[in-house]
Amino acid sequence: MLERRSETDGVVREIELHLRDLLDARSASGAAYGPHFDRLWRLGSECLLGGKLLRPRLLMGAFDALAREPGGDAARRPAALRIAAAVELLHFSFLLHDDVIDEDLLRRGAPNVIGRVIDASRAASGVEADDASDRALHWARSSGILLGDLMLSAAHQVFAREALPEAVRVRLLDLLDRTITESVAGEQYDVGLSDGVIPADLDTVLDMSRLKTATYTFELPLRAAAVLAGSGSRVEQALGEVARHLGVAFQLQDDLLCAFGDSREHGKDAFSDFREGKETAIIAYARMTDAWPTLEPLLGARDFTEEHGRAIRAALVQCGAEGFIGSMVDDRIRAAVEIASREATVIPGGLSRFLLRVVDTLEGRRA
What we know:
Elements: H1 6-30, H2 35-48, H3 54-67, H4 77-102, E1 106-107, E2 110-111, H5 113-125, H6 135-161, H7 166-194, H8 202-229, H9 233-260, H10 263-266, H11 272-276, H12 281-286, H13 292-295, H14 306-318, H15 321-340, H16 349-363
Antiparallel strand pairs: 1-2
């Protein structure tokens, strides 16, 4: 989504420069806490850099559009870039914790931080092991949790220390706090649904998707852009509505991609959601169909195989789950377009055009 194009390369370079500055500032003091801490921070920095920067690019795209409007505060652009970089730190913090929760060792098709710490630990000891309970795995997952905590703290520090008018800074901190709270609540829902602690139904799964994805992937960047640009509350609220629709559509597309897409493209293990028994919207819909008695014993099976994955895929298509969730994505996108296309008194023209470009890239993101 929001693939790098020539017109955005300059913004990407600016965001990456600020990210490097933030990471290097902490690296400078890392050696004081010993070589293991120093290596972990540097490893995390390497894994963080090079991503698509979706969230900071959303923030800067919306900010630049709003700053060009009458009354927009273009002078805050350096602050917006630092906040955008901090949003990427927040994203990486969530990814680190998510990888621990999901027991993932891959990210973007390559070893994630946990996988790389395991490789380094085993190489140093000369031991090769696949046992999920070995000490190398415990060390690596613990390192992932701790690095995630550090990234979360670093993101908060940027928001708290930015030299902005007090009302603006407090508003941004309130947005950050709400984002973290809702993301944690969404993650807890996700785990509770998958572990059978929380009863699974489609409405609950959709609410989980909104909390876990929409709030921090779309709502935080877009609303923060409005606050930084000095836009009115009506613009910020409208952006929040757009963000919630796009965020749910984005998560539902992720579910479809993981279930039906090419693992070489989405970067996760093939059939990972099926193997983990995740309660996605696709599965929640399938629960309401005659296919469920066939599907239930296959999801999360201890002896899960690719044959199980292909059988689940076929059943989800046959029972209509794939088509139903695809139509929900389309509905959410249409709702976002309707809001983004409102009269200029609510959504300024430049911002509307930016949002519609975001929608275009989202519509092209199909399994």
